[in-house]
Amino acid sequence: MLLGILNYLRGNVRIEMRGACIERLLNICAFNGIDFWDLERIDADLVYATVRISGFRKLRKYSRRTMTKIKITKRRGVPFLVFRYRWRYALWGGALLSAAFLYFLTSFVWTIEVVGCSHTTPVQILSALNDLGLKTGVFKRSVDPTELKNEMLLKVDKLSWIAINIKGTNAEVIIREREETPFMIPKNDPCDIVAGKTGVIYKMNVKEGKALFTPGQTVVKGDMLVTGTIVSEKEAGVRYVHSLAEVQARTWYTLSGSAPETYLEKKYTGNKKIRKALIFGDKRINLYLNSGIPFDFCDKIIKKEKVIVNDNMHLPVAVVTETYLEYVPKKAHSRSGEVSTAIKRALEKQLKEDIQGGTIRSSVCTNTLQNDVVTVTLHAECIEEIALEKELNKEWLNGVQDAPLKK
Amino acid sequence: MGRKKKKGGGFRGTLAAAAEKIDIPVSAIVKTSRISMDGNRQMVLEGHEGILEYETNIVRINCMDMIVTVEGTDLLVKAMNPDGLSLSGIIKKIEFSD
């Protein structure tokens, strides 16, 4: 197969050899570097063979020596094709022009692919890239990936690493995002501890600092639970410490949600309409005439397929297929309890997110049905950690000196 | 005497016999022909000195110190160069002679 293609590209001729001692000519050919193949014996003095064009030129010299007549019966291959079409200038011009056009088109960036987004969106990255000069249709040579990389890292704070690979007409942008560091006060710096939520203190374990509340007391969000300002009773002065405490509190939550019990069900009629459009860059060409919505009630499914030559060569052309599926809306009544269960599940999920690792001690759920709308209310009592470190408030001491410490 | 004759005689024959004695391949010492076959359909002969006769039912090939005669039907020389030749068709008989 491969050899066949190679032979076709180089061109070969089928020849007819007629003479008394053809075997001698064949031996001479073989030992003088004239390759031949597909030897076919037709008659006692007639043999057919295939040789290359270069081989054929040499062969004529030897044929005279062995008194063999040689005639070409068939010409095959690209050199003969080229020779046949040599006067067709428009054909050659067209081929050259299309090759040049292809080369010209491949010197632009046609698609930009962003990989590795989790907190950021590809749109954010693309718009930042756009501002810095990398956009669809930009000349490839005008983009310097190294410089662009550095500019991107400066421009977008959330990035910790970025790679820009321009392969063919596709620019692949790989990003890694910076992990957000939680707010923390260094261990050697003094600090207070405040209540992160409102509740009743359930358990308190103070390792460093002075507690201002005892279990059983009610605290409001923002109240100082433990102070890092220690006043020596023997008048040795004021000392500041990094407060350290675990404070658990009982907290109460009331969450509610509602949803209608009836809903619209789609009953598909089976009627559908397909429309196609072509997109060149940002120009859209509709391949249909009537652009109105074909049905009163329908789902529209849009599928966009990019024209991709290979992994590295993406063309700025896309085919859009829009499928309209007709349906008849029908009022349906959900089964009793189905809606309330779904709401309850959603509320419980929300509660678990709110208490962040705390435990639910007890919860009560109430359902009400009014005007076809189900409302579910979830009352829950939880135990959770409410201690939050806060920078030391040095003013605090001035206010306290007048009033005695809460006990 | 018979052995010497079989190996083609002369210095090459002596070398081939010696190689056989000390259990090393003859082709490593003396340049000999090599024939490989795919069933009875294809045959590749390396180390030849030219075709002596070529018909559709018989091909005679001159090798180093012998003549190989291949008999069969629809015999076709597929390719040929100074190193070897490839033969296809239905091979019925191969004969070696001096």
How would you describe this structure to a colleague?
The complex is a heterodimer of chains A (407) and B (98). Chain A is an alpha+beta fold. Chain A folds into 5 domains: 2-83, Alpha-Beta Plaits, CATH 3.30.70.260; 111-177, membrane protein fhac (Ubiquitin-like (UB roll), Roll), CATH 3.10.20.310; 191-247 and 388-400, no CATH class; 256-261 and 334-385, no CATH class; 263-332, no CATH class. Chain A contains 9 helices and 22 strands. Chain A has helices spanning 2-10, 22-31, 53-65, 78-84, 89-105, 122-131, 145-155, 338-355, 396-400; strands at 12-18, 36-43, 46-52, 69-76, 111-115, 159-167, 170-177, 191-195, 199-208, 210-211, 218-219, 224-227, 229-231, 238-240, 244-260, 262-280, 283-286, 298-310, 313-333, 359-370, 373-385, 387-391. In chain A, a hairpin with a 2-residue loop joins strand 16 and strand 17 (283-286). Chain A is elongated. Residues 403-407 of chain A have low confidence and may be disordered. With 98 residues, chain B is α+β, with helices and mostly antiparallel strands. Chain B has 2 domains: 1-31, no CATH class; 33-98, Immunoglobulin-like (Sandwich). Helix content of chain B is 21%, strand content 52%. Chain B has a 6-stranded antiparallel β-sheet, with no helix packed on it. The relative contact order of chain B is 0.17. The model of chain B is unreliable at 1-7 (pLDDT under 50). Chains A and B meet through helix 2 and strand 2 of A and strand 3 and strand 5 of B.
